[in-house]
Amino acid sequence: MAEIIGGLGLSHTPTIGYALDAAKENDPAWQPVFAAFDPVKAWLVANKPDAAIVIYNDHVTSFFFDHYSAFALGVGAEWRPADEGGGAREIAPLKGHPKLARHVGQSLMRQEFDMAFFQERALDHGCFSPLSMLSERGQPLDFPVIPLAAGVLQLPIPSAQRCFNLGKAIRQAIAEYPEEMNVVIIGTGGLSHQVHGERAGFNNSDWDARFLELIASDPAKLAQMTHAELAEIGGWESMEVIMWLIMRGALSDNLEIVSKQYCLPSMTGIGTLVLKERAPLPSVPVATEPFNLPGTHPFDLEVSAKAYTLNAFLHKLADVTHREAFRTHPEDTMRAFDLSETERALISQNDWIGLIHAGAIFFGLEKLAAIQGIPNAVVYAGMRGETLAEFQASRNAPGALYSTGKTKVECDD
């Protein structure tokens, strides 16, 4: 059974990445940053986790306000460093753990946390700045990572208590995982800092010390704090520390403080904390009900990952440039999208049920039909193995034909 062996609290300021990339290990101004991470790195080497859940926030890099989620779980197989304006850092990508991520996502939804899910998004310094300090320079981490992005930049944001409760739900999810695995939970962000407005440059080292004490000994007290209280005492952007409460909520109260470090080189109070579970938490078997309804193909996280490229191609048919390229040079456009030979054949033949079996979601097929002027009813009939006339005979309005596109629908059947 899976178990949580400990939790890490790590600040994630870009200062950390700068110090590493500029090789500032021996610079007196930056040496404390490396010293803060050394015991974290040593603990990971000694305990060899099989996976880590990393709670971070994106800094308007891979996520934007056209769609901004409170909690978004990464279920992909690999995570690349993001370009934040000056070019992506030249560091190794992080390996993902899709199977565990899917399990955690399913469990959190069952526990009534309404999660968003993402793949194919690069991760910015919120994730990479601390994690790049945990391996030998230029080398990948020894364990896969599941990123959990928290939306903490645009109000309203989750409360400290909600974050603490999410951590408890993550603990439940790990306890339910049926395979043997040692998991570490990593909360990032903060400590005290403010990076905007007339208060830019604000720090409160006394509060940072108190926070590091409370997150270990009395997280419930921190969970009662409001965003306004956290902003006043630690700076507006220091509200990121609610992500440490997600980490802490995933742990028990039977903890050993392995390491607690702090420094303030520039704009952000940098803290690192290693909390070790003294005893494994009990596993929790979960009775899952298999879903097997003939003629029905649930679109779950596993299918989403498996057929990501296929669905991305179909989704992009809503873009006029991609759509016209496909109409004009279909084979070249599909090859450029790196579709497999099988996927290209299914699309070329309008093999609707074959595409469903390959993992396409119906609403991608709807777009493929619309750009050809094919009514939805032809797609429905094709999936059932019927002619259009046979399918329409089963409808209350057999003469009704429609499409999601503005192209005039046509039918040869």
Give a brief rundown of this model.
By secondary structure, the protein is of the alpha/beta class.
Describe the structure.
The structure is a single chain. The protein has 413 residues and is of the alpha/beta class. It has two domains: 2-277, Protocatechuate 4,5-dioxygenase, Chain B (3-Layer(aba) Sandwich); 301-393, Dioxygenase LigAB, LigA subunit (Protocatechuate 4,5-dioxygenase, Chain A, Orthogonal Bundle). Helices cover 40% and strands 14% of the residues. Strand 9 and strand 10 (270-277) form a beta hairpin. Helix 11 packs parallel to helix 16 (362-370). The protein is elongated, with a radius of gyration of 25 Å. It starts with a strand and ends in a 20-residue tail after the last helix. The mean pLDDT is 94.
* Number of contiguous helices: 18
CATH topology of the largest domain: Protocatechuate 4,5-dioxygenase, Chain B
Largest sheet: 8 strands, mixed
- Rg: 25 Å
Give the helix proportion (percent range): 25-40%
Which structural category do the helix and sheet elements fall into?
Answer: alpha/beta
- The CATH class of the largest domain is Alpha Beta
Low-confidence stretches: none
What is the overall silhouette?
A: elongated
Structure summary, number of beta strands: 10
- Determine the CATH superfamily of the largest domain: LigB-like
Helix and strand string, N-terminal first?
EHHEEEEHEHEHEHHHHEEHHHHHHHHH
Query: What average pLDDT do the residues reach?
Result: 94
CATH second-level architecture of the largest domain: 3-Layer(aba) Sandwich
Termini separation (Å)?
56 Å
Q: List the domain count as a whole number.
A: 2
Physical arrangement of strands within the biggest beta sheet: 6-3-7-2-8-1-10-9
Strand content: 5-15%
